[in-house]
Amino acid sequence: MLGRIVTALVLIPVVVALVWWAPSAVVAGVLAIVLLLTLHEFFDLGAPEYTTGGMQIRSRGLRSFRAWTAACAVLLIFAQWSAGQFEVPPLHYGVEIIRNRVYWNVSLDMFLVIFAFGCMAIALGSRMGLADLLSGSGVSSAALLLIVLPASFLVRLHQIPVTGPRWVLFVLVLVWAGDMAAFFIGKALGRTKLAPLLSPKKTWEGAAANVAASLLVGYLFAQWLPVTVSQMLVLAALASVAGQCGDLMESAWKRGAQVKDSSSLLPGHGGMLDRIDSLIFATPVVWYYVDWLFRNRS
Questions:
Q1: Which end of the chain has less neighbouring CB within 10 Å, N or C?
Q2: Domain edges within the chain
Q3: Confidence check: pLDDT of 2 > 70
Q4: Against a cut of 0.85, is the pTM above it?
């Protein structure tokens, strides 16, 4: 518990300062680094041998295209950043000339095509076994679609004019407050198991506390953002549910790999994947809801 608190006290001020003062390009760069660490942990969960606590554990033996997936993760973050810079339309890619400066950009759909063709090239040119080619394509695709793609919308949120950093802080505080409420209330009052096969310690009481804390965060941030209280409460509830589902999915991955944490990178918190599992799926919910609100105002 002490290690968990110390890690939080160190990381939270750094993250808040980064979100509030750093330009979106820097936020995108830091997010890319975080996601690369997360991908490393995700791939290790399915590797032939997974090391945790100094012990080697036999896992599913799933191969992956690590280098190609990591490169595409960075490209996807750039695609999201460029989409926010230029409002890139579908099927558009290439060069933009803005204020006599040349910018390269790539759209999200073009990125997916690049990733697919890269996987095909690896499959045709690699000496990996046929079974490994199947798992490599599947695991790499899952990593991009289930981790990098949803988390990458944090860049788009940060690029919203004027209020972007506030929206990012909203989703971060919502996840942090919800996790803490679920942990303490679930531990003190939890009786009814939420998903015993996936995460035996999670309870419906803790889940309800997560939603309640998220609603409180939504109410408070409604005073600071250009939306109504009712709109923020709906958003907070949706993001809380999405975040908890992301947490449960990551628990399922870990139980499948027979490990407690994705790694020991963050003392008291486990790995990077353990720390951002809820954020991964709460973020796109916030982005699309906010985008829908703004579009319907115009």
A1: C
A2: 2-297
A3: no
A4: yes
